[in-house]
Amino acid sequence: MPVRLYLNNVGKSFTMHLQGGTVIPVVEKVEFSVNAGECVVLGGPSGAGKSSILKMIYGNYRCDEGQILVTAGDEIVNIAGAEPRKVLSLREDTIGYVSQFLRTIPRVSAEDVVAEPLIAQGTSEEEGVDKARSLLSRLNVPERLWTLPPATFSGGEQQRVNIARGFIAHYPILLLDEPTASLDAANRAVVVRLVEEKKTHGVAMVGILHDQDVREQIADRIIDVTGFSAEAAA
Amino acid sequence: MNDTAQIFEQGEYNFAYLDEQTKRMIRRAILKGIAIPGYQVPFASREMPMPYGWGTGGVQVTAAILGKDDCLKMIDQGSDDTTNAVSLRGFFEKTAGVRTTYETSEASVIQTRHRIPEKALREDQIIVFQVPIPEPLRFLEPRETETRKMHALEDYGLMHVKLYEDIAKNGHIATTYAYPVKVNDRYVMDPSPTPKFDNPKIDQMAALQLYGAGREKRIYAIPPYTKVKSLDFEDYPFEVQKFDKPCGLCGAENVYLDEVILDDKGGRMFVCSDSDYCEERRADGHLGPMAADPAAHQFGATQAEETAR
Amino acid sequence: MNAFPSTDPLLQVHNVTRYYGDRIGCADVSFDLWPGEVLAIVGESGSGKTTLLNCLSTRLAPTAGAIEYRMRDGTMRNLYQLTEAERRLLMRTDWGFVHQNAAEGLRMNVSAGANVGERLMAVGERHYGNIRSTADDWLGRVEIESDRIDDDPRSFSGGMRQRLQIARNLVTRPRLVFMDEPTGGLDVSVQARLLDLLRRLVADLGLSVVIVTHDLAVARLLSHRIMVMRHGNVIESGLTDQVLDDPREPYTQLLVSSILQV
Model's pTM, two decimal places? Predict the structure, then answer.
């Protein structure tokens, strides 16, 4: 299977100017690749930099060193040096992100929140909302909530809305940031099935999953990020 | 020529009051105005021996163009013998000694406030309008610097905002006087506070039209046979006022009528605002429905007194 | 469908500098803005963000530098070499400007309908019925009831005035809209509604926007890209969530950490 994502010698540190310019090293010399249809799970204790790696791939954090190469259509783009509009364009059609937290937008209903990424990719509004409803239903979000803005939902409901939003569109690369945390067994199983479906569609995935069961079910490979720890390398 | 009109020959006044340098300055402004139809030309308006609002702009224009052979007619709201007309006629009789008349066809220069004669004017006549506020954009845009730019750039959307408001609030364009026009497809102009009934007359008029605003120090002009279009909307085209009755005295239709209160019992009649036109028609034997009425008869004999609009 | 087609930039800003006497208003600002892109300029009062906005929108001539804009015919023009007539036409057709104080952007003594219709009349629309129905349509899009069409904005609340100002600007389908603290001075709930409305209109119409705000939440919700200004200089710029989640400059870190967490 072709390589979708390749991290080459990636390094990251934070400089905390408000704390006297303290430099906090995060990761160094990160190097791995992900193939189409493969799910790679980042392992290691919290604070090891898993989340930072994910955020660098999404362009949410800056990458100080190295390259993050993604295959987008016919071209290979280095996210580490891409212009903002290029990153935004990749987020629209190439890289999806399923996070734990939903940034709610006032007055937009749950089904519209979920359908938005799909509609942005060119699907009709009607079809988008249809697909949103079926996903919400699979994730056991009560139907009476679909037309309400999710701002007032419970934490679990908001999380499931966001999972639906993350999975609805087709991205060749999908980043999973603790998608199953605090979900019950039934919903965890739904997420596992959604990931399996993405695999069959050739989606390359990078995930952070603390849940041992889920990790075993979906991970094709586990990469221990402690190997990239800046201190360890120093 | 009456007694007082002799005064100018005794050296007390220059002909037509203004000195020749001032007249030359005003004539230059007039020529520029004619060259750029509808454009407001600034001029150094003089103090006149009458208050602003009495027609100082019109008087200065008239004084600048008047020659000894001219015959002058003065109109105030269509009538030759109301206060303003009488005073200004007296002014020129005294300072210029020119012949004056009530008859539209006899006059070579007609100075007017608020009306245009019903009888079509000729190429050898000049009509001078007294203008209180020359800037049609003024009520919408108070800054002179800005209105000048708007004229320069033909930035006239605001004029239609005013008409839009009229229709939105009244169901039709309720502006009935000082109705804005576009001259020669270029400048938007205020035709002075004449009723919009008179707007069609200034389009392709044979006579030269001169407009003078004394307080605001502006002169503008419309040369003979110039296109003058009243602003409107496609679905709310410009329309003039219609009167459902003819003139009570002379029976004229399609003329601008004034309402006259005859008594304190509600008696009223509508008569021509243009008193000269009305008289001429009656002299030709035209009779209106109220011509036989004693009250009207008495009234008609003493000339139609203009009533407040 | 891609919201960011790789077309040419709409606006190109080269080293724009504005002095007020010896004092710097903004210095050496350069950036490109692409169609459909929303750029937020953030910073505290006096940082030069409004000076920059006024320079960009031809309301204040820069002391040095050039600003080029792609006209509707595709040609790139230096904004300060346009004739006054071209500049005005641009400002009332292809551009919008949303002021913080709605009274500055509205005609307070004419009706809401005329406020929206003015730009149409300015570009030659002469059919009252069409103007009115277009105005009505736009009032609806900014959530103002049809029965308020003949009311003066003086009788409108702050939020309604701001929405009316937006409709008045968007009626000619501009491609570039400048906004100066559009939610400033409004109640939080009114702000949220306005932001949501702006977010949707900007996306639906594919507008390019340069928005000045001191409110990072507004920048996060509306903008794709952010420029942080301090003392007249752009000290940090980039993707909005990147700058806000991983701020690099000391001042930006201070700004981000100063947000109250609710």
Answer: 0.86
